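This part of the workshop introduces the protein records we will be handling. A record pairs a protein's sequence with a compact description of its fold. Comparing a sequence with its tokens is the quickest way to learn the format. To make this concrete, we reproduce a full record directly below:
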Amino acid sequence: MYNPKTLLLATTLAVTLALPAHAQRAPAPITPEHVRAHVDILAGPALRGRGSATPDEAAAAAYVASMFRGYGLAMAPGMTSYTQPIDVVSLRLDGAPVLTANGVAVDSPLLFSSSGQPVRGKLAAFAGTDPKQAPAAAAVIVTNPAANGLQLAGGVDPSKVQLVIIRATDQVRGYYDRIGGRPRLPRYLKGETPRPRPSVIALGDAAFDRLAAQDGAEIALELPGLVEQAQVTTNAIGFLPGTDPAAGVILISAHLDHLGVRPDGKIMYGANDDASGTAAVLELARVLAGKKHRRGIIFAAYGSEEAGGFGAHWFAAHPPVPLADIVANLEIEMIGQQDPKLPAGTMMMTGFERSTFGDTLKAHGAFVTTDPYPEQNFFRRSDNYALALKGVVAHTVSGWATVPTYHTPEDTIDKLDIPFMARAIQSLVKPIASLADSKAKPEWKPGGQPTE
């Protein structure tokens, strides 16, 4: 159920902010006050961090949908609502994991993540640091003290290894606390199968050392109390029809969810990630809805990016217009702070060099530049990638992608640089309007379109 107080606040603000765009021919320019009004709702205490596929996320989607409707946007073609509910299946572990070696219980295993399946088979010790060199075995224990256990586990081929066992160092235990002291279990779209991944367990020093000495032991991991539960994630979508239906559409998007409430009760507000991007989509919708353009523009706020990009994947698989008609997709994520590595006042665009889109935006005044973190593969790590894999020229713009508050309870409204956000969003208005009125369209450069 929606929180009635939350919906009242959302509806009131939606009406208040939407009226100017509906009542005047030239909407007011984007100001810090407009931006702050959105993030106050999206990252405020009432929405409790907008956890993926939760009623709080649904309330955030309802707020965004109310704004789209108030700005005079239409429902997207084929849709009967401004919201798009999507069925998700998630697993929850109500019991404690049980790990045994040769039938003997192993003390206090910390389960970080799991495929949701039991593991049975031989244990192999691995003294290397390259996950690609890990031996094929049911379970692998990482014995090299120089190895970063969590990073190594994330790079192991799940078709070769079902379980990775690492040492519970202070750093590992600290990370376990930061993720809420509970395992990450599969979530997947209803009707699909979860993406394969190895389970990861950390052991205290004594238990780890005993197990490391048992190379070849028979390992079993059981997950008592595993529950499958149905959830719903929600996209919010608005459409500004173009004057030439054959000219295609532009997609402007962000994700509206964040990490919600941790098991210890701390709220992960997600002001920067990605209330900031959702506010940008709303402000661009408000201003661009002030006139008709040759091309249509779809404005989308996806659900469940944090849980696996489900909203964007569903959109890409069930688009309201043919994917071939989407001229370009601009995803907006984490524009709440400026990166000290970037020129003052600019945003980075992931995969800038892959297409002509960034150059086109920049030539018309957008405050965008290249990504200074190519080693982080940010191009693949946001919702743009679901569209790019389908052939759409799709990129993400961000303010500071490596901001220290990322995925912490400190990602709060007071940490945002609201004036920077307003200037950055305003810089996108003319470039998007120009592209919407143009016959030209961005293209992938040779080798730029991703294939996997």
The domain at 4-91+230-437 is CATH 3.40.630.10 (Aminopeptidase). The longest helix spans residues 4-23. Residues 1-7, 19-24 have pLDDT under 50 and may be disordered.
